Amino acid sequence: MFNDNGTITIQPIDLKFDKSWTLPARQNWTIITKALHEHLQMDDLLNGYTELAISRQTRKARAEEFIRDLVRVSGFHLSKATDGRTWASDGSMIPAAANIIENKSITGAATGEQTLVMRVPGRNVSILQGEQLGLIIALVLSESSKTAPDASGRLLTDHLNSVRLIEDSRTEISQTPRLRYMNGRSYYRWIIDLAERSSLKIQYTPGHSKDHTLEAQMNNEADFLASSSQKIYKDIPEIRPPTFHMNNFTFYSPTDGWIESNILHYVDHLFIDSLIWPLHFSLYYLGQLPNLNTLFSENSNINPVQKRRLVSHLAADWHTSSIRLAGRIFGDFQKRMAVLNDNPYSYKHF
């Protein structure tokens, strides 16, 4: 059960006692369930997000209701350019060239009959999530639009890839395999789900246009909202990650948040060190060795000859061990593939 302060408590069920229940047993049941209800919370039973104990459908409904409630107290003005049937969305990221493991601030904005700007949490995100958030806000707010929905309603965005994915989702070709490993897949699944319920036509429009058309004006409004809100980033409300549309098993890092980018690329960033690795990456499987000279301080008592000899021995051992490790990894991979391919000969060979 949800409490007003946002916590989740255990709600006992109403048990109908039959004749097998003695009076002391009934009294004990009442005492125990009351104690659990008053003192035990979901936080005490779980390590991590307590919301994951709630059904996906409930989490999604609460997230969408949060957006609708938030716009009523946000204080943002509606679009000056809208014709009453058109919405626009955009995203912003600072710094614009931040990579996957750098801190960044990302906002998503939508404007039309209502206007709202929110920020994206986590570090393993990019401008993509800002663009997606803008679309989500617009689609959610348009559901409670004052005007009756009609086929002429539009949602403008300058993110062409999102438009194409939404259009593909409306064909007979399933997008499930495509979304399984796509970056920002939970946001995209939410967008597709909202788009199926919406009468709005998601339409691409070029960004940063100087034309005086309605499309250009509204896109510029959304862009200004997303970028100017970076000045008050910490005061902008945060969207909770759409865990209700994530894969059943999704990596999580306390520093980076939910990992929905390519996990191989994410892991490779963990082995970057420009001071140790000459090529900045740990390419041990190619025979590339780290700079072993950094292991010795300038004040070490070892003489130059001993140092060169020790570095040479370490390099030889490191190289041999790396080649063997790469071979074991490749062999293990081959065995696994042989089992999957039901090839007994290959399996025995390794």
At the fold tier of CATH, the topology name of the largest domain is Nucleotidyltransferase, domain 5
| Basic shape | extended
Give the fraction of residues assigned to helices: 40-55%
Number of domains: 3
CATH class placement of the largest domain: Alpha Beta
Secondary structural class: alpha/beta
Report the biggest beta sheet as strand number plus sense, adding barrel if it closes: 5 strands, mixed
As a whole number of angstroms, the C-alpha radius of gyration is: 28 Å
What is the level-2 CATH architecture name of the largest domain? Answer: 2-Layer Sandwich
Cα distance spanning the termini:
54 Å
The CATH superfamily of the largest domain appears as: Ribonuclease H-like superfamily/Ribonuclease H
The neighbouring-strand order within the major sheet is 3-2-1-4-5
Global mean pLDDT? 85
Poorly predicted spans:
346-350
The amount of beta strand, in percent, is 5-15%
Structure explained in plain terms:
The protein has 350 residues and is of the alpha/beta class. The protein folds into three domains: 1-45, no CATH class; 52-259, Nucleotidyltransferase, domain 5 (2-Layer Sandwich), CATH 3.30.420; 271-349, no CATH class. The protein has helices at 23-39, 56-73, 127-143, 160-169, 176-180, 185-197, 214-228, 263-269, 304-340, 344-349, and strands at 86-94, 105-111, 115-119, 154-157, 201-204, 251-253, 257-259. A hairpin with a 3-residue loop joins strand 2 and strand 3. It is extended, with a radius of gyration of 28 Å. The model is unreliable at 346-350 (pLDDT under 50).
